[in-house]
Design brief:
single chain, seven-stranded parallel beta sheet, binds adenosine-5'-triphosphate, binds magnesium ion, DNA_helicase_UvrD-like_C, nucleotide-binding, DExx_box_DNA_helicase_dom_sf, DNA_helicase_UvrD/REP
């Protein structure tokens, strides 16, 4: 009879345990390749953590285990879990976590390996890594040197250039194909882009810098280099990868060159959750794994979902069931709940924010920490109205996958113009605004501010100032704007639009992601329109947003409790008791920023599936009836009557608790007295509304 299994194995179901134990003998020498492909919440990540622990328990050398995850946070989390389980089973106090150091993202691990092998591949080990912002700056410098200025020649902005470059590098596709498929409007620039990319690569080499894509590219090249390949493939006994469905061609090439026969390789993922193809990820990696390693590859599927209630699971399954590809994974749960996922219709984005805050606070009243609740959205700027509402109610939050709305440069810029107009003596705002002008630095700005202080008015002082030569072209328009806003010549909120129009060229000049920032400002414009005056708007907006670590007055808060705001992309792999999905409307999910190809639509459907499957107990999909659409086409930006996302068609309604918020009172047949009362009520409401604005 065999000895009883370790307690950590007892907690797993049969399939999970098979995956954990696959090919692991005493000494934990590497076994055959293993694929775990299973639906959301079935314990893939948990299983992977247990497998790492099991390897350690069976004697694997932690320094020779490589664990690759989608984010650094996920890597840290898994390392902690795996080493805790192993240490407990071994009854050892040895710090396994210190030895299990090869954990992280592909990029992070790549950077470490490249530094080690730098000299063999002709890099100086002192290379630095450019983040996206740095890359965009470098791309910009190179572009100017080639005379490909965005302004004069309508050449694509630096962010677009970088996105095209990155896609070519990550997919290995040819430039013309990438342009045709994803950037059709840049087609005419093919030759210039070619020259630009060559110069960009040369500049990086000359400066000894690598960008994120290079980390993978160099790693893949290095792994294919015969003199290094052997060394690299010997280096790790076990390589384990989570979220394999979102890896790209380079990442799979790296894995295959490190583990050519697949021995010691474990990959885990869910094809129904592939959401990064826009960055070059390909679901083929996971789908082709068994064939690539046939007949050696083992495949485990997990069918029991441990995360969500049956009601949430049923709705999520129905949504993904309408996908054009067939995902054949079956999921069941024994967590029952009478509460179906809610499909909540609200008037607009402001009401959406209020609904979420009300529901979050209600759940907290019922004992659910803010931390176990999350609000998810398609694009980082979709949370703008909510962030404002949270700031106003003094509810702390952290945001993943994008900058906080009120902290972003462009939002602060626009607010500074309005603040300076409101209060010409506000030197901080004035400083910020003046330095938006080309050639204006702190000293010039200081002189203008002195003049404003002396005269007391913005209009005259700015207009009369003789600007530095570089600002000469832009100054008249600037002075005209300041005159109008300074003297409040344009009524609110039209004034906001005026400021935005003035600010837009600055955005295009200074930011690679001008389009997203533009969308933010439009968001703010629609919020602005809900306030009666500029002053009220500024007062509400500039209330200090509380940060996650300080507790001020207002709502009593548990220690370090905060609400999670996250893009859906950044929420991958995580779970919360209560989940809100914002903007469940067409134009948002699916987003209308793509080209609208069938593949893109399908990816958006999977995105909604990922969002819904984050919820453990309660799920709210909020559907604003009116939605601000920011369009690059001829229709321009506008409020539109939104319709519920096409991914939840009428036929699925019974799986949801469909409701309106605020709830409408039930209507009984009108009586004469009732009609009179209603007429009176209408007048009363109108009077109340009026009183609100007076
Ligand atoms: P996703 O596809 O979203 O990444 P996943 O398949 O990786 O999900 P996990 O995050 O590993 O799923 O697990 C989901 C939840 O189920 C977690 O809370 C986990 O602790 C729990 N869980 C997993 N396996 C078991 C088990 N055998 N017994 C009890 N709970 C489990
Ligand atoms: Mg997972």
């Amino acid at each position: 009879a065999s000895a009883p299994a370790a307690p950590y194995l007892e907690k797993l179901n049969e399939a999970q345990r098979a995956a954990v134990e696959h090919g692991v003998g005493e000494g934990a020498s590497p076994g055959g390749p293993l694929l775990v492909i299973a639906g959301a919440g079935s314990g893939k990540t948990n299983t992977l953590a247990h497998r790492v622990a099991h390897l350690l328990v069976k004697g694997a050398d932690p320094r020779r285990v490589l664990l690759l995850t989608f984010s650094r946070r996920a890597a840290e989390d898994m390392t902690r879990r795996a080493t805790r389980i192993a240490a407990q089973a071994l009854g050892t106090r040895a710090d396994l976590a210190q030895a299990l150091t090869w954990t992280g993202t592909f990029h992070g691990v790549g950077a470490r390996l490249l530094r080690e092998y730098a000299e063999t591949i002709g890099l100086s080990p002192a290379f630095t890594i450019n983040d996206r912002e740095d890359c965009a700056d470098l791309m910009n410098v190179v572009r100017h040197e080639l005379g490909l200025s965005a302004k004069e020649r309508r050449f694509p902005v630096k962010g677009t250039c970088l996105a095209i470059y990155s896609r070519v590098v990550n997919t290995g596709a040819k430039l013309p194909d990438v342009l045709d498929q994803a950037f059709p409007w840049c087609r005419e620039w093919e030759q210039d882009l070619r020259a630009l990319f060559a110069a960009y690569v040369a500049a990086k080499q000359a400066q000894n810098v690598l960008d994120y894509d290079d980390l993978l590219l160099y790693w893949a090249r290095m792994a294919a280099e015969p003199s290094i390949a052997a060394d690299l493939s010997q280096r790790f006994d076990h390589v384990l990868v989570d979220e394999y469905q979102d890896t790209n061609r380079l990442q799979s090439a790296i894995l295959l060159s490190m583990k050519p026969d697949g021995r010691g390789l474990t990959v885990v993922g869910d094809d129904a959750q592939s959401i990064y193809s826009f960055r070059g990820a390909t679901v083929r990696n996971i789908l082709d794994f068994p064939a690539h390693f046939a007949p050696a590859a083992a495949r485990v599927t997990l069918e029991r979902n441990y995360r969500s209630t049956d009601a949430i699971l049923a709705a999520s399954n129905a949504v993904i069931g309408l996908a054009s590809e067939r995902f054949t994974k079956y999921l069941w749960t024994d967590k029952t709940s009478a509460q179906r996922p809610r499909l909540v219709s609200v008037a607009g984005e402001v009401e959406q924010a209020r609904y979420v805050v009300e529901a979050v606070l209600q759940a907290r009243e019922a004992g659910m920490k803010l931390k176990s609740q999350a609000v998810l959205f398609r694009a980082a700027h979709h949370s703008a109205a909510l962030e404002l509402e949270l700031a106003r109610r003094n509810i702390p939050f952290v945001k993943f996958g994008g900058l906080r709305f009120l902290d972003s440069i462009h939002v602060k810029d626009v607010l500074a113009v309005l603040r300076w107009a409101q209060n010409p003596r506000d030197r901080v705002a004035g400083f910020r605004v003046l330095q938006l002008m080309p050639g204006v630095g702190p000293s010039t700005a200081g002189r203008v501010l002195d003049a404003v202080a002396a005269s007391g008015t913005l209009a005259a002082s700015v207009g009369a100032y003789a600007p530095p030569a570089r600002a000469a072209d832009d100054w008249p328009a600037f002075a005209a704007l300041m005159e109008k806003v300074g003297a409040s010549l344009t009524p609110w909120p039209a004034e906001f639009e005026q400021v935005r129009r003035w600010y837009e060229p600055h955005l295009e000049r200074n930011h690679e992601d001008a389009l997203t920032r533009h969308a933010d400002i439009l968001q703010m414009e629609s919020l602005a329109a809900t306030f009666p005056t500029r002053e009220r708007f500024l007062t509400e907006l500039t209330l200090d947003p509380p940060d996650a670590t300080s507790h001020e007055s207002g709502v009593p808060l548990l220690d370090e409790d905060y609400l999670i705001l996250s893009t859906i992309h950044s929420a991958k792999g995580q779970e919360w008791r209560n989940v809100f999905v914002l903007n469940g409307v067409d134009g948002c999910i699916p987003s209308d920023l793509g080209t609208g190809s069938q593949e893109e639509i399908e990816e958006e459907r999977r995105l909604l599936y990922v969002a819904m499957t984050r919820a453990k107990e309660d799920l709210h999909i909020v559907v604003p009836q009116r939605f601000y659409v920011h369009n690059q086409n001829a229709l321009g930006d506008r409020h539109v009557w939104a319709s519920r996302t096409r991914f939840i068609p009428e036929a699925l309604s019974t799986l949801f608790d469909v409701q309106a918020w605020p709830p409408v009172a039930s209507v009984s047949p009108p009586t004469e007295a009732g009609l009179a009362a209603a007429a009176k009520a209408r007048i009363d409401i109108a009077a109340q509304l009026k009183a609100m604005w007076d």
